[in-house]
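Worked example 2:
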Amino acid sequence: MNLSCQLDCLGFSSYCRILLLEQSRYAVHLEFMFFCLMQGNAGDAYQLALCLEQEKVDIDPVSNMMMGLTFYELWYSSIPKEFQWRNSDLFDLQENSHMEGTSFSNETGQSERYNSVESHMADSQCQCDSDASIMNDKQISRNVVSNEDMEVDANKRENPHQNFQPEGFYLNSEEHKGFGDPFSNTGGLTQDILYGLGGLDLSLLPLRFSDENRFEEFMYLQRNQPNDYYKNAVKYLQLALNSEPSASAALLPLIQLLLIGGQVDEALNRLEKQCCNSASVLPIRVRAALLERFDRNNSLMLLSCFEDILKKDPTCGDALAKLIKMHQNGDYSVESLLEMIALHLDATDAEYNTWRVFSLCFLRLSSYEEDCMSSCPIQNDDGRKQHCSFNKTPKIFTEGISGKSWRLRCRWWLTRHFSNSKLESEIEAGDLQLLAYKAACASYMYGREFSYVAKACFHLEKENDKELLLLLDEHRGNSFGIYQKFQKKFTHIT
């Protein structure tokens, strides 16, 4: 008797048919729950959740997540209306937002609490008040840390939770410039925790408050007397994340609930664990946002978060802007910043400010190497001695893994950023600053006589932009031509 007949005798085929029917019904069940939630119909979703519980089936991660979201929606509907974001509030926030790419994906507003942080944390460009600020008596300042040279304005938009300005909640208050340990009192809400929560983004704390007193009342009540909806939402979302495989979409709503319950330490612990177990950039983004509010003096942890964000999502301008700001404050090295900007430029066609900061990093590195410049006397034919200087290329471009990366990058960027077609389109667009700063960077990478650099100089002369010409000439005078030296090295080897 063959295997199929044996299994049929054992009733296996009938079991499989029943199992497939059960799985199909189960999938439809979950789909309908999701539909109800998206329509704001938490009542019907709740009845479906009760059916799942009563059947006592082996609930998978997605089911746990859907049940968690159902109880989340029930909890949210149970809090006073004054604390809920209405559809019109969300629409106004969208219309008035200064964030690039910010949108609310569901017209009913119900999905707002489940959206990823990526849709709320905008990529921001590095901005400066005046491009001439890097000029000092018509010479380029080599101090990349200058606040004027690398001024960053990553978060100009209004925080939706700061419609009120209660005493003790000012972001720049002298009293709160440095936090105490926000986790020193795990039994309740400290003023530091309340202060930090009061400034969180809507994506992390989806609540609205009219004044400080109402905010504190709500938070203390939620911390000390959470209802069953809240407890069940936390339970099922935790189960979804702890499952194998993990339902990662449960992370953000769980973090929101933990923060609303004042459990900042638990939220950070959960995020740290998720950062290690997930390939997604979302846990790192959320963790960085919380660290900025609750542990802003931990610069090493913040730097690690922003670097990890860029490594997983090189297009993220917000993380790059934060790293530039930390460099301004003396917490981040110019070598590391140069590498992160290069990583960002590998993935994007940035505006002129990014190239401007990039060029200043090159310039600063060239000044570091001034101590390595050797000057030796050479005797001419007429007997006179002449001093000849030799400029040493920084090791970051020539040694180890970093050196190999820069060799490949130089070759790639010949077509990625510095092709003739790119040059022509930039000239046609009329952005002289972009042209000048890209040419400045190109001079460090390919040498001062590189075609992109020479043609950019010619165009700036044609446009009679003396200031940008002076700027570019200063960079050209300090360039080291990384790619040229790579080529000479390999020519010598062969």
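The chain has a mean pLDDT of 75. DSSP finds 21 helices and four strands in the chain.
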